[in-house]
Specification:
Length: 291
């Protein structure tokens, strides 16, 4: 474990970054970038529904590359601010990618659940979203199961192999250690993530049949969203308690932020057509076939 003196030294070195005024400035920038990009892509898509101008697609393609760079940078630093800074002395240069991989996994899981719900409600039909599209989403979800596992292992293995107290203490607090004396109640969650977040869905989603069967794909999407939540819980809560606790804080955060997110998505989705009306590549997308 890291000693208090060393922890104080590492924390002090980051004081120029980890302070309230700079935190507020960063998050104004983050939200400006995220809202600006989201609004631009949404607005141009709605505009194309009206005008049918194919140049709008070209403009969005040109914007996509710098948008990816901006998104990558802001999401990385946002993960530092919200999660890694809970243990201010700790640092990991791969942490931003770790957060991104879990976020993309949950994104495709959510997309599958939303698409299947819209199909069940009759809002979109089988011509708009069919087995080919669901299989493609399932392949992306499977890919990010593997990618998350690869990044999680890479982060752990390098820190474990170097065995430096200024980095290993973060994993020790979560019971993710090979030293029996350092096992704690969080060790069960650490082992559970290895099995439940990687091994089980990896084996399940390899099957083409699973990815083309709506009910099975819905189940595994919901399953992975639960384990993604457990992953975030595992990152945050050991900084609050050495013992596993689940109570009002976790439920309030899940229901409050989750409810706000769902309400916003439903409201924005109700403003315009769910399916693009005059996208020049719509017909190509609707007739997509997997290899």
């Amino acid at each position: 474990m890291i000693d208090a003196h060393t922890e104080a030294i590492y924390t002090k070195k980051k004081a120029a970054y980890l302070n309230a005024p700079f935190f507020i400035v960063r998050w104004i920038v983050f939200f400006a970038v995220w809202i600006g990009l989201s609004f631009t892509f949404w607005k141009k898509s709605v505009q194309q529904d009206i005008t049918g101008d194919p140049m709008l697609t070209r403009k969005l393609e040109c914007l996509a590359a710098p948008a990816i760079v901006l998104f990558a940078i802001t999401v990385t630093f946002a993960s530092f601010d919200l999660l890694m800074s809970l243990s201010p002395a700790w640092f990991s240069t791969i942490f931003g990618v770790y957060y991104f991989s879990g976020g993309m996994l949950s994104t495709f899981a959510t997309l599958i659940l939303v698409l299947c719900y819209l199909k069940r409600q009759g809002i979109i039909d089988d011509k708009t979203v069919n087995k080919e599209h669901l299989q493609d989403h399932g392949k992306f979800m499977f890919g990010f199961v593997v990618f998350w596992s690869y990044i999680a292992f890479s982060q752990y293995m390098l820190i474990w192999y170097a065995s430096l107290p200024e980095t290993t203490f973060w994993f020790v607090a979560r019971g993710a250690t090979t030293v029996p004396a350092d096992f704690n109640t969080w060790s069960y969650v650490s082992i559970g993530l290895v099995i439940g977040h990687f091994l089980i869905p990896f084996l399940a989603l390899m099957s083409r049949h699973v990815k083309r069967t709506q009910a099975l794909l819905v189940f595994w999407s919901g399953y992975l969203l639960v384990f993604h939540w457990i992953d975030l819980w595992w990152i945050v809560m050991p900084e609050m308690s050495t013992e596993i606790k689940f109570g009002i804080v976790e439920l309030s955060c899940l229901l409050g932020l989750g409810g706000l997110y769902v309400a916003t998505v439903v409201w924005v989705g109700s403003l315009n057509a769910i399916v693009p009306q005059k996208d020049p590549r719509l017909s190509e997308a609707l007739t997509f076939k997997n290899m």
